[in-house]
Amino acid sequence: MQFEESTGTQFGYVGYEGTGERLRALAGGHITVAIEDYHSARAFVENGDLNVLAAATSERIEELPETPTLKELGHDLEFWLLVAL
Question: How many domains is the chain built from?
Answer without folding.
Answer: 1
